[in-house]
């Protein structure tokens, strides 16, 4: 199994000519993996390797004619940029703690996923007990699958992309909220997307806490304005009661996403829902099971 190349990502270029993906090779002797980026010419079916470094490049995405990606080259996880042929590589971010990102199609804005601490650890609560190996819990979810609650949530931060770089602290789009912008423990930027005009972001999460969070599968799609931070719920109400995830816009402003009908059924049938720019809602897979 360790000899197999591991593929991840996969996005088509805006002009529809290239397919971009990441491929990870496992070094068993050194107990580590290394990811590099590749593109496939969809017309000729030829593959070109874009990066070949001892560092990992991953979460690659297109914006305009450029490719943006995360890399560990600087010693931290940073956003980098390069041309579609792999040339002109440069570091975009000078921000610590980036766990994911999206770049607007006009290359004017960057949304990052970063952790925000919302509760004190035992050592912070009781600094006179530095050797304490304990947790103080009075509600769920202190453990989710194989992940312990680390007293933090993941928020979306907005940065203006100026002269090809971002820096500073950014604007917390969920400031004051004690919930993650993506569903823990495995959620990521696949459920975050810019609107076609790049003036807002849509994300999927459950704005619930404790036992209510643990027993519900009713995630919602939220839209937040990048200038005002005003937030509205797209799927709240009686129509969408299960998971609503992976929002994606067409160039015309139609919004599609994956949706489950019932709350509490995490393995329910997944449907593709389309909400047109005019507000009409359609179930594109009502008669088909693509789950």
From TrEMBL:
Pfam families hit by this protein: PD40 (PF07676)
Name assigned to this protein: WD40-like protein
Organism superkingdom: Eukaryota
The organism of origin for this protein: Ancylostoma ceylanicum
Protein family per UniProt: Belongs to the TolB family.
Biological classification of the source: Eukaryota, Metazoa, Ecdysozoa, Nematoda, Chromadorea
């Amino acid at each position: 199994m360790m000899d197999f190349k591991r593929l991840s990502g996969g996005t088509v270029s805006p002009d529809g000519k290239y397919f971009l993906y990441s491929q990870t090779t496992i070094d068993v002797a050194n107990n580590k993996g290394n990811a590099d980026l590749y593109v496939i010419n969809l017309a000729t079916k030829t593959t070109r390797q874009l990066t070949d470094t001892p560092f990992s490049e991953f979460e690659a995405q297109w914006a305009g004619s450029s490719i943006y990606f995360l890399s560990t080259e600087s010693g931290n996880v940073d956003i980098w940029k390069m041309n579609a042929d792999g040339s002109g590589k440069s570091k975009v971010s000078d921000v610590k703690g980036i766990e994911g990102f999206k770049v607007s199609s006009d290359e004017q804005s960057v949304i990052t996923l970063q952790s925000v601490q919302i509760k004190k650890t035992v050592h912070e609560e009781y600094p006179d007990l530095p050797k304490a190996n304990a947790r103080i819990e009075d509600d769920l979810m202190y453990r989710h699958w194989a992940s312990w609650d680390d007293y933090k949530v993941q928020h979306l931060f907005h940065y203006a992309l100026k002269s090809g770089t971002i820096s500073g602290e950014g604007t917390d789009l969920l400031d004051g909220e004690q919930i993650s912008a993506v569903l823990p423990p495995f959620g990521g930027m696949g459920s975050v997307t810019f609107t076609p005009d790049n003036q807002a972001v849509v994300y999927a999460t459950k704005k619930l806490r404790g036992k209510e969070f643990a027993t519900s599968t009713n995630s919602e799609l939220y839209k937040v304005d990048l200038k005002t931070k005003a937030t509205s719920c797209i799927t709240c109400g009686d129509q969408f009661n299960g998971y609503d995830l992976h929002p994606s816009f067409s160039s015309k402003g139609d919004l599609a996403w994956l949706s489950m009908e019932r709350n509490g059924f995490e393995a329910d049938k997944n449907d593709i829902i389309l909400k047109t720019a005019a507000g009409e809602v359609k179930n594109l897979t009502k008669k088909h099971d693509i789950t």
